[in-house]
Amino acid sequence: LGLRSAGLVGISIPGAFLSGILAISLMGYSMNIVVLFALIMAVGMLVDGAIVVVELAERNLRNGYSPREAYFEAAKRMAWPITASTATTLAAFMPLVFWPGIIGEFMKYLPITLLVTLSMSLLMALLFVPTIGALLRGGAVAGQDTARLVAAESDLLGEARLTLEQGSGMLKHYLRLLGHGLRHPVKVLLAAVLILVLTMVAYGKFGKGVEFFPNIEPEVAQLSIHARGDLAVAERDALVQEVEARILDMVEFESVYARSGLRLGNDSAEDVIGRIQLQLVDWELRRPASEILAEVRQRTADLAGIVVETEVQQNGPTSGKPVQVEISARDSATLPAAVEHVRRGMTAVGGFIDITDNRPLPGIDWRVEVDRESAAKFGTDISTIGSAIQLLTNGILLGDYRPDNADDEVDIRVRFPEGMRNLDQFDRLTVGTALGNVPIGNFVTRSPAPRVGSLERTDGIRVMKISADVHDDFLVNDKVLELQNWLAENPAEGGASILFRGENEDQAEAQAFLSRAFGVALFMMAIILLVQFNSFYQTLLILTAVLFSTAGVLIALMVTGRPFGVVMSGIGVISLAGIVVNNNIVLIDTYNQLRKSGAEALEAALLTCAQRMRPVLLTTVTTILGLMPMAIGMNFDLLNRHIQFGGPSTQWWTQLATAVAGGLAFATVLTLVLTPCLLVLGEKLFRQKALPAESLAEQS
């Protein structure tokens, strides 16, 4: 474009940014990591419309237009194509605004930011950029004989033929290759379909699989120490200190905070006796957290009587362990055996780590049954009997008081001395009645029962849960599928129902929503394209570019060795649907104008590509370059003049950026090769259908 035109195009970036940020602030949203990435993602797309207008204006200037006329005609000529291309992009992001659940609350800032900034970029491209361009170019007119140039080259077909004659270098090689393809459009289409099929097959065989959400390098980790038995607080603390001593010499920890006791939170398993919170040093100064925690497990593996469970801080919308299994049964007595069966399956499949469940700890609870009829004969009641029994357990609450320099109140309870709070004393316990003190055994019986901790029900049915993590060498989705297959081959006894919650459930919901959002986006884009071109064939042609662009997504993921993320790569595919159609809209619009000017189909396709190759490549390159730092994990520290790779802040968006950049690069090749071939193919098909009708009309 040249320095002057590039600077003019660059004006649209801060203009759209500032307008978009102002609109976001007025909507009540604050700046966060999702909004910032959306702005980065929008950088390449913001200039698409401005590039098309400025490029056409520069050609008008070379053809003898005055600056005012050049930019006015360029904006007027490209108003509808740019508006349609922007509208299709907005249509792709619009359904994402209605994403339900926690994932939707987290990701909604992305489509909202893009909708606002891209809308502002349309105003910049059609209003501000042409106005500023006309002012900056002044009244100068290119060329010496203006009247002759305008008269000779003002028509679109003449401009296109002039561009074709003046083409050199890469343009000539491209047009020569395109000419061969235009003569064999069916072969080109079959080749594109073959590439798409082979890519899908190759990804299924060599790809890294599917994951729900990218793993982000954590800053905080936590150890939960499990031990069974009736341990006193001092004994629990001693075991926690023993674990702490094993890891204190590791230099990757900035701070280590340990806590032990009886009450560690409602979310704690019954056998958790303590927790150790680990604050990791900066990610550049240490190994990955997975390696650090693997060493922690290795160092504490030989500690007898305890199990050390590792857990990292969850970044993003996910929470808890990725694998959560919910087991239910009508007969609650069969649940512990079913839980053990699923745990055996996890061990047989392999790859699962830090497996925990909420089965009650081994132990005995004593059930006390009162014979109400016998108690009534002695003149006592349930309340009096219960108060007597409380003297052996937690005591009777008399009141409370707040000690000096304390924030919490302390209960005042009365109960027997510690040495008398046992079963033998229970058998000797007496209750005061109207007949005097009566041994409690006259109307109370006690019986042992298995200990029961907390009870959980779903839809009125008793459930137990298993939570687990997956080793870094495996994907959660793959391991869950293997476990489901194992359970299908080895069903649990007792008719227990096994449901996979957690990440598996969230992934299924995200897949269902993104599939619907993709369908709605395609429908909205189809409506816009039909209004723009009034042609079902050309609308279908543009939408096929979206399908073929997925091959570029899979190729990019295979090259970079990344899995397909349901959330991030899925959003990338939907985003790509709106971006890919832009170049096709401008290309087909130019083709239609040339056909109206009298060019034959083959000539019109060649002239269209000769004219539009540069703006198509420019818009693609700007979008890809805007995403490239995120795709390769590059982070710029401007204050310290330092470039980082693989930082946690970039790990959020590598899948999305890779999907969009790879798909757009592949789709651009299709736009410049497959789209003109399909246009020519369509002309041939419609002409063959029209010929019999014309001959029939002549005979009649």
Record the SSE blueprint.
Blueprint: H1 3-10, H2 12-26, H3 33-46, H4 48-62, H5 67-93, H6 101-107, H7 109-137, H8 146-153, H9 156-166, H10 170-183, H11 185-206, E1 210-211, E2 220-227, H12 233-247, E3 253-260, E4 272-280, H13 289-300, E5 306-312, E6 323-328, H14 335-349, E7 352-357, E8 364-370, H15 372-377, H16 382-390, E9 396-401, E10 410-414, H17 423-428, E11 430-433, E12 436-439, E13 444-450, E14 456-458, E15 461-470, H18 476-489, E16 497-502, H19 503-533, H20 536-560, E17 564-565, H21 568-596, H22 601-631, E18 634-637, E19 642-645, H23 648-651, H24 654-699
Characterise the protein shown here.
The chain is an alpha+beta fold and 700 residues long. The protein has 4 domains: 1-154, Multidrug efflux transporter AcrB transmembrane fold (Up-down Bundle); 219-313, Alpha-Beta Plaits; 364-450, Multidrug efflux transporter AcrB TolC docking domain, DN and DC subdomains (2-Layer Sandwich), CATH 3.30.2090.10; 516-636 and 643-689, Multidrug efflux transporter AcrB transmembrane fold (Up-down Bundle). The chain contains 24 helices and 19 strands. The longest helix has 46 residues, at 654-699. The chain is elongated, with a radius of gyration of 36 Å.
